[in-house]
Specification:
By secondary structure, the protein is mainly alpha-helical. The protein has 2 domains: 11-127, 3-Layer(aba) Sandwich (Rossmann fold), CATH 3.40.50.2000; 132-162. Helix content is 51%, strand content 11%. The protein has helices at 19-25, 37-46, 61-68, 79-84, 99-111, 113-127, 132-146, 150-162, and strands at 11-13, 30-33, 50-52, 73-76, 91-94. It is elongated, with a radius of gyration of 18 Å. The termini are far apart.
Length: 169
């Protein structure tokens, strides 16, 4: 990306077992470490693209946080990214296992900043309806379904979710 757009800066926020090797391989990158709350929001707000090559994150907190910050997401079409990112609308999805295609899309985005501007407008809209109450109700409904309580889900929880009422215990 830097070869095609000199202003590109790679910033890693978070920590993990690959940090040391990444720092050695990417000495020009910024390694901010773990950040929370307003400080984390500041990193999202100052970015143009959230590049997320993970194949293991399942719930998708970081994907949702990026989108909620108005930040388009480039990710593999797997796990939570496939639920929240609509390719060529609020981000880009690349089929799992196609690392070369992932890089090509990243380079294309560096070469065509107008694509980022268009996706930025849609990013926040995709997740704006989410709130903790709704998420808790969805998790509760899934647990009840898994426990074989589908009748309760259909007759009580779904109508309550539709009305956005308080979670049922």
């Amino acid at each position: 990306m830097q070869a095609h757009h000199a202003d590109v800066k790679l910033v890693f926020v978070g920590d993990g077992p690959l940090r040391e090797s990444l720092q050695q391989r990417c000495p020009q990158a910024v390694f901010a470490g773990m950040r929370r709350h307003e400080e984390l929001a500041g990193y999202y707000a100052s970015a143009d693209l959230f590049v997320f090559p993970s194949l293991t994150e399942t719930f998708g907190n970081v994907t949702i946080e990026a989108l909620a910050s108005g930040l388009p997401v480039l990710a593999f079409d797997t796990a939570a990214a496939s639920d929240w990112v609509h390719s060529h609308t609020n981000g880009w999805l690349v089929p799992e296992g196609q690392e070369a295609a992932f890089v090509r899309v990243a380079v294309t985005l560096a070469q065509t900043p107008s694509l980022l501007a268009q996706a930025r407008e849609q990013a926040r809209a995709r997740v704006a309806h989410l709130d903790w109450q709704q998420i808790a109700m969805q998790v509760e409904a899934l647990m009840l379904q898994a426990a074989g309580a589908s009748l309760l889900v259909d007759t009580v929880l779904r109508p309550a979710m539709a009305q956005r009422s308080a979670p049922l215990l």
